[in-house]
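Dear colleague,

Following up on yesterday's call, I've attached the two folding results inline so they're easy to grep. Please treat them as preliminary; we haven't cross-checked anything against experimental data yet. The first protein's sequence and structure tokens come first.
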Amino acid sequence: MALPYAIREGLSGFRRAAFASMASTGAMAVALVLVSVFFALAIEAQEVASWLRQRVGEIEVFLDDVDDRSGQTVHERIRAQPGVAETQYISRAEAAEIFRQEFGEGAENFFDAPFLPASIRFTVSPEYANPDSLSGMAAGMAGWTHVDDVVFNQPLLVKVQKNLRLLTLGGSALATLVLLASIFLVANTIRLTIYARRLLIRTMKLVGATDRFIRLPFVIEGVLQGLVAAAIALGALAGFYVLAVRSLPQLTPPTRDELALFAALVVAAGVLLGWLGSAFSVRRFVRRVALN
């Protein structure tokens, strides 16, 4: 009998304390939106950081005086190396054309065989895009046959790695602050909701109701508020996403499975917030209610 009663009381709690219920639901919705937006930005920032490390960590292998057939052999060998993501073979003719485009008129005055060697540019996968891995890879390739020199911008990569590490630490600290502030906001708002019904709790204790019996309707009400807050948050996030796509059309749209997973996580977070906030608040409040 306790569970059906608790469900009925949890549902009727919205009507008995409509303002307090709306306040706690709104607080949870705001918390879910803040955390979700920060989570989405963190994922996007990680993707951008990974792309940036790959671009900065580009290696160029310059070949000695070889024909294109030998150059393609070295190209295939580089392509087969672990961690290599993308490769590009640049012949002498292509190198001359690139030089002409970049330096414009008068570039032909610098053309000679040693000055414009064939080369191979390649980028590595994200897990290899760090100074130690690239240094080891460059040192190994420098000893290959037909390889004249191997270059990459190690100082710039080290600087990028350092700045990304600082951004990650700062972002993690800010995310923790946002999460703690959201939990504090929700817990205090639900505590006010329970305080608004202190006379009902006192009456129930006077007639002999156990603490568990008193807490259960409030916990169920908190879960229901979390579900409503999750629905509101998903609607707000959908609106933000539409605005973001219109402002930044280059954003990669998520797949249907990713959207479903994200929605499930928001709903689960809403239920968890409602359950934890109500259970913790009502447990402390019920114990402090005086019977005289």
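Below is the second protein, in the same order (sequence, then structure):
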Amino acid sequence: MCETCGCGDPEIVPIEVQERILSDNDAQAAHNRSHFHGLGVLAINLMGSPGAGKTAVLEATSRAAAGCLKLGAVSGDLATERDADRLNAAGIVSSTITTGSACHLDARLVHHALHHFPSNDRDIFFIENVGNLVCPAIYDLGQAANVVTLSVTEGEDKPLKYPVMFQKADLVLLTKVDLIPHLDFDVAAVEDALARVMPEAEMLKVSAKTGEGIDAWLQWLTERRPAEVERPPEGHGHHHPEHSHEQPHEHH
């Protein structure tokens, strides 16, 4: 549980304090969203359990998008830079947001990472959230869409057990589907569970290992890309006329 916000537990952090935290976060998220919009970048908040395959899906996405799209990412991790190292090796310009004891990313952390990100010339920017099916769903980061990875090894009932995460999702990636022949897993059951909790249930079956479904996932992303905009010259970080430290926005 996050030491900062109590993750919704009023016995740890009073409700009025939680409301202020979320209000401040939403204001920063709006700033991030304006930033992404100004750069013409599609920002995706990628969430899921530890081991659900978030990093592996991004590696497969990079292979499929090679030569067509420029990808960037930040990876939330409590203690290591292993995910960002994997993504950089796969061709995705990446950096790590080390959260310590915090079990989710917030808009302030993403904002700070953007100001230190090594490239502004990206088409799609993935925010790989901390592995968790609870807290990340609560925090707006300025993304254009929420995507949740759900591994077949987790079972079909996760949407019912963690409804808020899936209610907030625009898309669910059912990962590791190459393992289905070896498991007692019912795809229809997970589709039914999603239909019960998602306002507009949408799921793609993917395998980072075999590449199944990755083209459909890439098409889903491409269809949501914003119109092309003129980007600032490479080497100027993520600054643009609407996003400079001279602007009077709050830093925590």
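For the second protein, one point worth flagging: Residues 152 and 179 are 7 Å apart (CA to CA).

Best wishes,
A.L.
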